[in-house]
Specification:
The chain is α/β, with parallel strands linked by helices and 396 residues long. The chain contains 17 helices and 13 strands. Helix 8 links the parallel strand 7 and strand 8 (201-205).
Amino acid sequence: MRILSPIRAQVLKNTFHHPLNMGLGHSIFAKPLLAVQDSEKAHSRALKLLRFMVSNPITRGTVTLLYKPSNRIPISKFGIDFRNPFGIAAGMDKKAEALRGWESLGLGFMEIGGITMLEQLGNSKPRMFRAGKSKALVNRMGFNNPGSEKIAIQLNKHFSKHGQPKIPLWINLGKSKLTELEDASDDYATTMQRLWKYGDVFVINVSSPNTPNLRELQKDDDLKKIIKACKDVNKTEAALHKMSPRPILVKISPDVDDAQLLAIVNTARSNGCNGIIASNTTTSRPEAKSSGERKVFAQAGGLSGLPLQNQSTEMISKIYKMTNGEFPIIGVGGIMSGEDAWQKICAGASLLQAYSGFVFQGASLTKQVVNGIEKKMRQNGYSTLDQAIGSAHRDD
């Protein structure tokens, strides 16, 4: 590992902390994404800028120096070591374009996708909308992605050139729009088989509101069939590559009622899944704070961001109680600060993810969240993150 001299490191630090250059660093996310004249194009520009910033050792080292969070709250889950519990959620990097960028921003893990068996363009544009006062996004992307074959080629090129990523790589599996619901298990399994050797964790996404009837696959028999198909692939590929099977998680909707939630959790657990992600975007809408926001909230699609915060935290708490804290939960939804992250950990989340938080808070969100969690741990007398997980229930 190349180490910068103290003098050179200080020069780089001073350079990036100059107001003009801090603006450059901040623009990795916040500036282009908050512009949102066309949110999707802004998103693409942000990814390109991040790729550029980590394309050579000097600027990559500078990004790391600027955004690196505390390294004192590691955690192990599913037999995998994470340098911290905070990762990027699916949707931010659908095409696996900026893998080295996520490493450099200090994240504990990264999730790419959703990726479907077939290449698809997704829904018609515009399909991403921002409500700034409410810190909310509405999207109806529709699993736009190059498809599993092209993603496999992309990952093979990256691994061949740069080696295995330094942080765990999660792969979000979606259903192709053209695939009938009864054939969904083959769709998920095919994508997993094509990408198995590249992913550290696989996520079965049956909860996006933007693929017609996809949420129907959260029902017991359909979900069980998908899990079984993915587990069969997992077993076969693990034997072929002489490696351990990959952890499989299920990502669920926040819009299910308590009976549906219990059924999904029980199905996931009883069929050998390793954890659950709570949650995907919601079809519900908050009260608009302006006429512009009313137009945004009138758009069809899933809502993410701050308005989802309490809903997802409550879901985490319910799952923790349902499983007596024995089923790992990944908390996502409305994380904008270390305090928000801490609430989800206390509710029962072992790991955390953000998407909208990076849009509204910028690339420094990782440091805010990880350092904020560490501070809360010290204040509460916890020496390990595991001690804090679900602590709200023990306090009760």
